[in-house]
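[stage:ingest] chain + small molecule (nicotinamide-adenine-dinucleotide)
[stage:ingest] validated
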Amino acid sequence: MKKILNYINGEFKAPTNNEWIDNYNPSNGEVYSLIPNSSSDDIEEAYKAAAKAFPKWSNTTLEYRSKILSNIANLIEENLEEFALAEAIDNGKPLSLAKTIDIPRASSNFQFFAHAITQFSSEAHESVGLNAFNFTLRTPIGVVGCISPWNLPLYLFSWKIAPALAAGNTVVAKPSEVTPMTAYLLGKLCVKAGLPNGVLNIVHGLGHTTGQAIVEHEKIKAISFTGGTATGASIARTAAPMFKKLSLELGGKNPNLIFADCDYDKMLNVTLKSSFANQGQICLCGSRIFVERSIYYKFKTDFIVKTKALKVGYPIDPDTNIGALVSKPHLEKVKSYIDIAETEGGTVLCGGNYVTVEGYENGYYLEPTIIEVKDANCRLNQEEIFGPVVTIMPFDTDEEALALANGVKYGLSSTIWTNNLTRSMQLAKHLHAGIVWINTWLMRDLRTPFGGVKDSGVGREGGVEALRFFTEPKNICIKY
Ligand code: NAD
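[stage:predict] done
[stage:export] tokens:
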């Protein structure tokens, strides 16, 4: 059985306790590799390697750092096929998606921050009339922790690591134990790219042990975390008394507001994606769909037809639209929401069943599911399901649409479909969300701030925000 190894101080190592965790292939339900069940001893070793590497790495020129990050980006691109296949097998996502979105974006994350760090600047303030001059010195924090989830494995792992390294920090990182493979492969590329030993350390293991050991480590001064809201709250509880810098990118239950005056065909096609891309396992998916009543029936009819036409299948097949869900427990959790639909006052309009894929009968497949709900406060409409399940509901006025959109504890992203500029801007301003897409979805410019409000998190990453997070600003005041 293939063993994934920790990458510590430039070397690939078994965990010190020699304990291993099964890694499942979601497309057939079989264990296909083992991953380290790392303990706090491995985190300590990774920390020591990172701490040793920090003085030199933080003093390298920006050109040097930029070149190394660029090398990593290029190597990911050169190994696109291998990485995409590994991601599809590990996660269950369609290979076509891994090839066109996940892996290219992981490469772009490194390329973007390779360039961004060379343009990063800080402020200067003249204290006029006082003969004094201030400038802000931004220095790297030291050893930082990066913890990422399973839904977009390399995409989100690299989204944290790249700015952390670019800013001059050294890193102890943990990918999700559910999807460790591409992070392991990344370690190999880092060696080839010439990343000095200890600058990046990738330690595999469970959240409540390995992840917790990173958060609890008193000398790891900043944590960038992406994952569930409950985990984020637990991390905040641990980190707060230690005064760590925290960036928490958490769950979502994003509204998709569809108005009668929108470009209907475009809206319908994009809504299909925003509902079911990556089996609905994207924190930005529009899982609550609200439609203006005058087009509600037409939308409902057309959306059902399009959803039924999506092919659920083996992730590697080129014509698969919906692959396998990431794990058996997650599949069962998603299905349990469908099963409570009726008691919650919902009607399953299409989907709702497990799918048996020939040749892969033990895989974790589920039909894309649309549930019509009457009460916006029902659990289906309030809780993050994080699977191929959306709720739909009509509305009558802009005010009602806004209240429905904001009526959850989350506030990550929102989508508005309308050709009325005034309406779109008024809604955009008042929506509880870190990101508002108008007449599009998941269009990402890496320079923009990324993050959520309310229970969707604290802090922003992306572009200059990430470089700010991964540096400490210091005011230097000179009197002359
Ligand atoms: P999760 O919270 O279970 O795990 C995320 C990571 O945290 C994993 O690496 C896990 O091992 C680790 N972890 C778990 N417990 C920990 C602890 N006590 N201390 C330290 N680390 C710990 O989330 P998941 O199930 O992997 O991912 C799905 C969730 O992630 C969804 O809620 C989704 O909305 C969210 N998500 C958010 C964003 C965003 O940008 N806001 C992006 C993607 C996913």
